[in-house]
Amino acid sequence: MVDEFESKYEVSQVATFIQTHNFKRVALQFPDELLKDSTEVVRALRKELQSSCEDVKDIGLYVMADTTYGSCCVDEVGASHINADCVIHYGHTCLSPTSNLPAFFVFGKAPINASNCAKHLCDYASSTTKPIMVLFGLEYGHALQDVIKVSNVETTHMSGDTSKIQLHFAEVMGQSMIPTNSSETNCSSCTADGDCGDDAVKRTYRIGGLVWNLEEGQSMEDYSLFWIGPDNSAFVNAVLTFNGCDIVRYDATENQLLTDTSQQRRILKRRYYLVEKAKDAAIVGILVGTLGVAGYLNMINHIKEMITRAGKKAYMLVMGKPNPSKLANFPECNVFIYISCAQTALLDSKDFLAPVITPFEAILAFNRGSEWTGKYVMEFQDLVASTPVGTEITLKEARFSFIQGGYIEDPDLQDADEEDEDATLALANMTEKALQKRDDDIKTVAKGTAKSGAEFFASRSFQGLDINSNSNAPEPFIIGRTGKASGYNHETSKD
């Protein structure tokens, strides 16, 4: 049992990573569902370090929970509170490149019936004329070689012509990540559609910590996708990014193949609707959803400049994990742009007062003349990987027809854009006049004209829940003890 536990959490590999780089302050990041095992992991890791390291007392292990943003990303903000040298990330991860701290990822080992999975894979491969690209959740990477081995056996024993069956498997980028001075980490210059360098013979694709190559002249539309794993954010990321491919999903929990991905594909229609709605926005809120993923500052600068060029006002908001209650404090914002990793970027904003869109959708909405070809980019690093700050990003867009059920060319696209531009400029002018209107309420903090975003938000009658900042508020009635738990105000020192 102990060996199985240590194998699941890869205790020896983690200890080797710590010792190899001589890290002294190590942050162990656990998601909520694995937090119950954190004490046992620390105990096993401490024991492993003692058996191979003499100065183990100098190594500090700190458990982190309740991440600042999504638990799939390395929480560099939380790790900085203890001046950590590195982060050991446990559980599901998007494997987004970090900005400053080295990281080691323990994906876990989810149970899977490799024989059953390989059988479904071969049956599906024999029913299609396209080659198959096998993608998977990182927690199933430990069983990939078993699936490959059984698939080769199944293909050999299948009756009929099996020479046309072509199976290709993605690989995990790696478990460790050492950020460099460059914003490119773990070959982040390889986009979902692009090459890895001008001299590359093969095209390199990556998504969610997976990487694979295609021969020159081939594209992902030439393949069918076979996904191994649950219906989670990683799967939705793959469906949207490669929405031009036929995709099936093998559920390792139920041991069955699911071919209906219409629910995930409907998300694309919903996102397109939000893009159209965002075009009429006059005030835009930029939600910072990460402070650790490499390149987020460049993306913020691109978005701010793009909004300014569109004649709109932008305000940057940092609030941790957004929810409807938090964003309701900013009713002036007509739309929010959420800058985060690919697997947390899609917020279901049906309960929000204003839509929440991704950087890719913002570029489609605010860059005049941009066109949507049906491709969808989730990684914001891919949008600015080769674009200097200040350069306008242009994308081609094909209008989606809900009647025809697909993307169509719109001959009136240019005229529609001109009408939208006139309407947007009119809204922007009205907003400018509203911001400059004199505030008649003498009790507001920013009496007079609003010259900045801070003054504008401060001019509202609602000033938040900090009762100490309002001199007219009644004195608070304190029940219980006051002070810190280490020494309350009524307690006297025992010294």
TrEMBL record:
<comment type="pathway">
    <text>Protein modification; peptidyl-diphthamide biosynthesis.</text>
</comment>
<keyword id="KW-0411">Iron-sulfur</keyword>
<dbReference type="GO" id="GO:0090560">
    <property type="term" value="F:2-(3-amino-3-carboxypropyl)histidine synthase activity"/>
</dbReference>
<comment type="function">
    <text>Required for the first step of diphthamide biosynthesis, a post-translational modification of histidine which occurs in elongation factor 2. DPH1 and DPH2 transfer a 3-amino-3-carboxypropyl (ACP) group from S-adenosyl-L-methionine (SAM) to a histidine residue, the reaction is assisted by a reduction system comprising DPH3 and a NADH-dependent reductase. Facilitates the reduction of the catalytic iron-sulfur cluster found in the DPH1 subunit.</text>
</comment>
<dbReference type="Pfam" id="PF01866">
    <property type="entry name" value="Diphthamide_syn"/>
</dbReference>
<keyword id="KW-0812">Transmembrane</keyword>
<feature type="transmembrane region" description="Helical">
    <location>
        <begin position="281"/>
        <end position="299"/>
    </location>
</feature>
<comment type="similarity">
    <text>Belongs to the DPH1/DPH2 family. DPH2 subfamily.</text>
</comment>
<keyword id="KW-0408">Iron</keyword>
<dbReference type="GO" id="GO:0017183">
    <property type="term" value="P:protein histidyl modification to diphthamide"/>
</dbReference>
<dbReference type="InterPro" id="IPR010014">
    <property type="entry name" value="DHP2"/>
</dbReference>
<dbReference type="InterPro" id="IPR016435">
    <property type="entry name" value="DPH1/DPH2"/>
</dbReference>
<dbReference type="InterPro" id="IPR042263">
    <property type="entry name" value="DPH1/DPH2_1"/>
</dbReference>
<dbReference type="GO" id="GO:0051536">
    <property type="term" value="F:iron-sulfur cluster binding"/>
</dbReference>
<protein>
    <recommendedName>
        <fullName>2-(3-amino-3-carboxypropyl)histidine synthase subunit 2</fullName>
    </recommendedName>
</protein>
<keyword id="KW-0479">Metal-binding</keyword>
<keyword id="KW-0472">Membrane</keyword>
<keyword id="KW-1133">Transmembrane helix</keyword>
<dbReference type="InterPro" id="IPR042265">
    <property type="entry name" value="DPH1/DPH2_3"/>
</dbReference>
<dbReference type="GO" id="GO:0046872">
    <property type="term" value="F:metal ion binding"/>
</dbReference>
